[in-house]
Amino acid sequence: MERSTIVRVHEGLHARPATRFVKLAKGFESDVELVKDGKAVSAKSSVKLMLLAVKENQEVTVRANGADAIEAIEALIGYLENPKAGLDDEAPQHPANDAGQEAMPAPVPQSAPAAAGQANGLRGVAASEGVAIGPAFAHFPPDITGQGRMLQAGEIAGEIDRFRAAVAAVQARMDNALAQDNLSAGDRGIVAALRDIAADDSLTGQAEKAIEGGNDAVSAVITAASTIAAEFSAVDDHYLNARADDVHAVGRQICLVLLGQDDVSLENIPEGAILIADDIGAWDLARAPLKRIGGVVCGHGGATSHIAIIARSHGIPAVLGLGERINTLRTANQVALDGNSGHVIVDPDAAVRADFAGRVEAAAKERAGLAAFKTVTPKLADGRVIEVAANIGSLEEIEAAQEAGAMGVGLFRTELLFMRHMHLPSEDMQAETYAALAKAFAPYPVIVRTLDIGGDKPIAGIEFPDEENPFLGWRGIRMCLDRPDIFKRQLRALLRAAVHGNIKVMLPMVSDIGEVRQTRVLVEECAAELKAEGVPHTGFDLGVMIETPAAVLIAPALAREVAFFSIGTNDLTQYIMAADRLNPTVAKLNDVANPAVMSAIELTAKAGVAAGIMVGMCGEAAGRPDLIPTFIEMGLTELSMSPASIQRAKKTITAMVTESGAAGK
Ligand code: PEP
Ligand code: MG
C-alpha cells in the first residue's frame, strides 16, 4: 500500500525532521519505506532518510506493508504535509558539528605588524588576539585500525555481543553528557546529533553485517562508518556533507570502547602550553582546562569557527586554518604565536623567544592596568558619553563582553545563529536568542544586525547562485529582501524580543535607499501580523551599516530615513580601496587609515551629525587606539569592538579628554 505527496517540511528531511519521521514510523509494526525518484529507503532509519536528501516541495511516496499499514501511511503523510501537527516534543534544533566549518564573510582582524623573527614562521587566520609562547602540546589522536584477521565461525556471536555492548556504552556516555546541566546549548546540540547517529540502525546494522562476514568489530565499524560518511559527503547539500564528520566521530567512539582505550584527552595539558591540533571538536575544547591553555594553533577553522569563538571568549590567542602545514608542528618543542597577525613560529630562536616573552609580559601588564577601566563611562568634555560596546556573534560571548565592561552590544552578528544549524533557525528560537541578549545588557542597547550572509559562504536552506564575485553579489540586505520568508521571520523575532530590552536593528550592505524603505514596509507588515495574532511585540530603532561607497555617497539622504549609522570599516575599506579583505597579497592596500577610507568615514560622520542621528562604528578599526581620537573628533559617539579591546578603548578616550585639559570620567 502506498501514497504520494508533496513534502511541506520546511527545509526538507534534515536531521531533526528525519528523527521525528523515524520516531513516528517506528510506532507502527508495518515495514515502512519512503520513496524518492525511484529510490526506496526504510523510514525507520534516520541516517538513510537523511541520505535520501528529501527537500521541501519534492514529491515522495510512503509505502507500508503490514497490519497497520493504513494508519502508518496516514500518520506519515500527515507529518510530511503538516509537520507542525506532528509530535509535540520538538527538541531545540541541533547546531551542526563545526569540524572545519568556515566562516561567514569573516571579520578578519586587520593585520598587525608581522611577528618578529620569521624563521620557521607560518601564517594562518588570526582568530583570537594576543601573543603567546610556550611548550607545544600536540593533540593528534592516533588513527584506529582493526585486527586485520578474519574471525573463525565460532568467534562471530561473541564479537557481535562485544560490538552491541560497545554501542550501548557509547550511547549511555552520550546520554550522560546530555543529562549534565553544565553543557551549553551549542554543545548539547552537537552531542545530541552524535547520539542520533549512534542510535541509528544504518551504522550498527552495516557493522553487524560485516562482523557476520568474519570481520573483527573494530574493522567492521571503521568500514561501516567510512561507507556511510562517504555517502553523506557525496550528497549535494552542504549540511548533509558535514554529517560525514559526525559519523566518523561516532565510529571512533565505538572503536575506542572496543579497544578499551580512552580518547586522547586535553586534561593533562601543561600550564601555558600551546595546543597544536589539526582540528578540535567544540565539545572537546569547551571541556578542556581552558585556563591552562596558553594558545591554540589549528589546521582547521576560520575566524568565526567555534574554536575561534571559544578562544576569543576565554582570551586565548589563536591562529587557525593552517591546513596541511599544521603537520610541521607535530614535533615542535616550543611555539610562539601572534593572534593579531596570524603568525606562528616553530621552535623560536633566542631572539624571538626574548621578543615574545617581552610582548607577553607587556600584554599582561597592560591588561592589569586596563582592568580599572572596566567600569568607566567615557565622557567628552561637553558631557557626551561615548558608548564602548561589544561585537559578538553568540550568547556564549555575553560573559566575556560583560567582564570587559561593554556598554551594550554594537554589533550582534546573526550569521552564526544561521550557520550553526542544519535548518534555518525558527522564529521562536531567534526571538529567544535576541531576548536573552536584550535582557543581559539592558538598559544598554543591543544592536542586532540582520542576516549578512554572502554568496561565498552558503548556509543550509538558502540556495546561493554561483557567483564570480561573491563580495559584490547576493549578500546581506540584497538576499534578505529577495527572501521575505527568511527576512520576515527574523524581523518578527526582533519585534518580539524588543519587548525585553533595548533592541535596535541594523541592515548590512545597504547601497540604495529603497532597501531601507522596503525593509520598513516588511517591519510594518510583521508588526501588523503579530498584532493580529495577539503576540506581544514592540518597535525598534532601525539603522544601517555604512560599508559600501554608495552608502557613504548617499549618507545625507539615508540619515533622514534611519535612527543611526554604524560604520563597517572591514567592508568599507575593501570596497573603497577595491582590495579584497581576505587576500593577503593586497593587505597593504586594505588599510582603514588610508586617506580615501578616512575621508569616507568623515563624510558619513558629517551627514549623520548634521541629521542629528547617532553615528557609531563596528568594524575592527573601532578598537584601534591610534584612530579612536580621530573618529571621535569626526563626531562618532559609539564604538563597538571585540570584548578584548574594550578597556583599552575606554582608556584611550579617557586619556584624550584628560590630555585636552577637560574633565575625565
Ligand atoms: C564590517 O564590514 O566592518 C563589519 C563590521 O561587518 P563584517 O565584518 O561582519 O562584514
Ligand atoms: Mg561587513
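^ phosphoenolpyruvate complex. The first helix runs from residue 15 to 26. Residues 508, 547, 568, 570-571 surround magnesium ion (ligand 2) (CB under 6 Å).
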